[in-house]
Amino acid sequence: MGKNKKCIVVTVIGKDEVGIVAKIATVLAENKINIIDINQKILGEGIFAMTLLADRVGSSLSLPAITNELKASIKGMSLDVTVQDTEVFQYMHRV
Amino acid sequence: MKFTSEEILETIGMIAEDKLDIRTVTLGISLLDCSDPDPAVCARKVREKIMAKSADLSKKTDFVANEYGIPIVNKRISLTPISLVVPLAKPSAFVEVAHAVDSAAAEVGVDFVGGYTAMIQKGETSIDRALIEAMPEVLSTTSRFCASVILASTKSGINMDGCYTMSQVIKDTAGRTAKNDGIGCAKLVLFANPVEDNPFMAGGYYGVGECESAILVGVSGPGAVRRALEKLGPDAGLGEVAETIKKCAFKITRAGELIGKKLAEHLGVVFGNLDLSLAPTPAEGDSVGQILEIMGLAMPGAPGSTAALMMLNDAVKKGGLFASSSVGGLSGAFIPVSEDASMIKAAESGAITIEKLEAMTSVCSVGLDMIAIPGDTSAETLAAIIADEMAIGCANNKTTAVRIIPAPNKKVGDFVNFGGLLGKAPVMPVSQVSADKFIKRGGRIPAPLQSLKN
After folding, report:
1. Which residue among A11, A63, A85 places its CB closest to the CB of B8?
2. Do B242 and B113 reside in the same domain of the chain?
3. Of B23, B259, B12, B63, which Cα lies nearest the Cα of A63?
4. Closest Cβ–Cβ partner in A82, A85, A92 for B251
5. Over chain B (454 residues), what is each successive 10-residue block's mean pLDDT?
6. Most C-beta atoms within 10 A of its C-beta, which of A51, B95, B356, B369?
């Protein structure tokens, strides 16, 4: 990760519906969070799974605030969203 | 992407479903500069130092937990053993300083403080005697200050007079907190060979070899280990089981290492150490007993429990040591009865007994932990149970501990309920065969031989 980046991983899992990616991407764009990479799959029976890497260095929101904004955007849909700092994955999966 | 979806989902699952968390962030504070022959001045100095060092502890800990999305469950403080700080052989002086610690802890927002500690493995000073005399009052009139007494070490042997004295202190404390099932005893740990950088309570204290102030991080995650073993399936060989535990312990420890480093940065103190201990809570799935069940034992306590626990404890240590260069504390598996749903069930059904627990403590961290026994157990029998546990630590050059509650007015089969993290426990039967004459001999059991070990 570059020194001027503050990267997060957004994970969204749940029932597939129209417009999930759009809703998530809109919230991120509105809060000046830059998407770097997206991985999205439909697992079998219409289960939506997305992992997204983004840079929040330009955003003033804290990590819990980003989580709350994202949760609000998909309220009413059967989806779970989590946001984690990439350093957590770096530490746990890379030596 | 830098990480695979599997890696990301594994981590998310460990935190969200398997309850991987930072169990405790403990700020170690040296009190060696707070000593004063006037108890009121000593109490004021101790209070001021705690307030100054830990004013930001709660706020900064919450900030780091939020920023990295890993829950930090408890914030705690460990202090220099108070027997080295209060230079007076007066019980009232200890009570005064203890109350100052308790109220400072409440103000800075920590749930437990460790360090009401005396080291009497080879004998007592007049100051130690005063500290111990005040202990039942301190444990029953404060809610946060935890006590520990070192009764044995491999180098000194076992202070048998100390075991007998402490069994009476335990009974007195249970009596004074009878309304709450003897909860005062849940804040008292007796040790052989303790570590000086243990972040977990009630047995943590901040050793004299430590620096001015340091962050000690305790990581837990029995749920994550259980899940990893479930995925492995019931037919995998034990070599594979050990390997899986090691890998899982590695990942958990890395999460702790990250949080510890960040917290130390934010608080401007040294990152003292990381203690990876599988510490259960009463919550469903957050259980060390269940790991033994997944390994293939119908219940903890079954024949094979000692072997399974030895492997678990060892694999946790091996994975943890590779993951961080700051591993310290106890680092292993805890088997407290009242704090582990599976152990509670095993104790209730009689599958696990105090004798089997004692055997299991010879291969895991800590010892006879959070065990309720009948309130009418004699001080001599209690002292003998304590001495047995000290002997295991002493002869095997390892830490062992006793945290036992003779529950007032309760009989075998009754339950004690402490609530919260301390949980609930069935009152377990104690052998009725007398050890009175052995205990009443008093004195010290000499240090055991370190060679010719067979």
Report:
1. A11
2. no
3. B63
4. A92
5. 81 78 92 96 97 93 89 93 96 97 95 96 97 98 97 97 98 96 95 94 93 92 89 93 93 88 91 89 86 96 96 92 85 88 93 95 90 96 98 94 96 90 91 97 94 78
6. B369
B10 lies in a domain?
no
Same domain, B165 and B256: no
Strands A79-85, B213-220: pairing is unpaired
Question: What are the CA-CA distances from residue B76 to residues A7, B83, B109, B358 (Å)?
Answer: 31, 20, 9, 29
Using a CB–CB cutoff of 8 Å, tell me whether B8 touches chain A.
yes
B415: containing domain: 213-444
Interchain CB contacts (distance < 8 Å): A and B: 69
Query: Looking at beta carbons, which pairs linking A70-75 to residues 24 or more positions away fall under 8 Å?
Result: A70/A10, A70/A24, A70/A27, A70/A28, A73/A23, A73/A24, A73/A26, A73/A27, A74/A12, A74/A20, A74/A23, A74/A24
CATH topology of domain A7-93: Alpha-Beta Plaits (3.30.70)
Q: How confident is the model at residue A3 (pLDDT cuts 50, 70, 90)?
A: low
Residues 6 or more apart whose Cβ sits within 8 Å of residue B280: B220, B222, B286, B287, B288, B289, B334, B336, B339, B340, B341, B343
Q: Specify whether the CB–CB gap between B47 and B249 falls below 8 A.
A: no
Is-cis flag, bond preceding B202, omega within 30?
Answer: yes
